[in-house]
Amino acid sequence: MKVIAIINQKGGVGKTTTSVNLCHALAEAGKKVTAIDLDPQGHLAVSFGIRVQQQGGIDEAMLAEKNIRQQIIAVRNNLQLITSGPRLREIEQLTESRLPRGLLLKNALHENFNDQDFVFIDCPPSSGLLIANALIATDEILIPMTSDFLALQGLSHLMSTVKRFEKTMQKKYKALLVMSRYASTRRISSQVLNNLRSYFPGQVLATIIREAAVLAECPSFGKTILEYSPKSRSASDFRSLATDFLEGRVMYEDK
Amino acid sequence: MKTNEKNNLIGFDPLAWMDDNAGEIKDQPEEEQIMPDQEDEEQYDEAASLSSHLEEGGTEDSASDAEINLEATLTIQKVLILHEKLKSSLAVNSTIVINSAAVAAIDTATLQLFVALKKTAVKLQKEIIFALPSQRFIESAKLLGLLEILEVKA
Ligand SMILES: Nc1ncnc2c1ncn2[C@@H]1O[C@H](COP(=O)(O)OP(=O)(O)OP(=O)(O)O)[C@@H](O)[C@H]1O
Ligand SMILES: [Mg+2]
Is the pTM of this model over 0.95? Predict the structure, then answer.
C-alpha cells in the first residue's frame, strides 16, 4: 500500500481533477484505490457525485472520534472515498494543545489500508496544518502543474516547504509531477514544461493532460471523465497517466 | 544554467535556487512557517520547574528520579530499544529527566514514542521532562505540533 499526497498550495492547478480521474483510471485498471478529501471545500466528493455535507469524514477520523474505516464510502468498483467532513475547517485552525496536531492524519491512517494498493490524498490549496499533516503522513507526493509562469513560482515555494520537511523530519520524498492543465496554444507552455524537465528529470509523468472543456464539465454531473466522455482525448490522457504512474513512465531532460 | 537561450518567454527563473543545493538539503530562501505559530497562552512555566528539578538532583525524592541522555541520531531503527529503556525507567521512577541537548536528528517514530510516554506518565501521575532541548529537537517537535504535548519550550 502506498499513500500519495496530491499537493500544490496554488489553487486551481488541477489537484482535484487529477485525484478524481487518476484514481478512477487506476481503479479501472484493477487497482484498489482509496481517495481522501483533505480539502474542507469538499470538491473531491462532489466530483464523484457524493453530496453528504453534514456527514463526518476524515475530520472525525483525525480527531480520533471515529475509526477511519467507518468513514469509507464505496464510490466505484475498486474505488472508495473518504469525504472531508464539516469539521475539517476547524482542524485547520486547531490550537488544542492535547492533540498531536501534525500527526492526526498519520495516526488516523495507521495500518487501516493494508488491503488497498493506493491511498490518494487530495490536498487543499494552502500551506497550513492540513498540508503539514499530509506531508507527515506520506513519503510520496504528486504535484499537478499548470503551464504558466506563476505555476513555476508556486512550485518553487512548494519545493522549499518540502525540503524543509525533509530536513526536519529526516526523510526524503518521492516526488512526481504531472502537467495537469497544459495550454497547448500558448507559447510559454512548452518552455515551462522544459523547465520542469530539466529541474525534475525522471520525475515528470510522461503523459500531458491538456486543457479541455470536457474536464471542466464533468464535476457538475458527478462523473469522472471516464464516465462523462469515455472516448474523449482527456479520458485517454488519464488512462495513459495511470499507466505512467504504474509503470514509472516519465520524461527526461531534452538533450 | 537551466535557463537556456531559447527560454525567452521566461524572464526570471524561480527554480534557480534548486541548482545550488543538489543533494544536500540546506536552508531555503523562502523558509516559511507552515505550522500555525504556537500561541503562548498556556504558560506552564516549564522552564522554572525544569531547572528546579535539575538542581534538586540528589536532594529529596532522589530515589525516584532518573536522568536519561538522548543520542544525536534518533531514528525508527532505535525506537524499540529507546522504548524499552524509557518504559523500564518509568516503571521505577516518578520523574524522568530526558536530556535532549545532543539531538541532531530525530524522526517521526521517535517523537511519537515520546508522545505516548508522556501520556502514560500522566496516567501514572509521573513526570517526564525534556531538558535542554536542542534546536533540532525543538524544530521537529514544532513541525509536528507537539511542543505543548511534550511540554518543550521553544
Ligand atoms: N485539464 C483541464 N482542462 C480544463 N479544465 C480543467 C483541467 N483541469 C482542471 N480543470 C478545471 O479547473 C478548475 C480547477 O481544477 P481543480 O479543482 O482540479 O483544481 P484544484 O487544484 O483542485 O483547485 P483547488 O486548489 O481549489 O483545490 C475546475 O473547474 C476544473 O474542472
Ligand atoms: Mg481541489
Answer: no
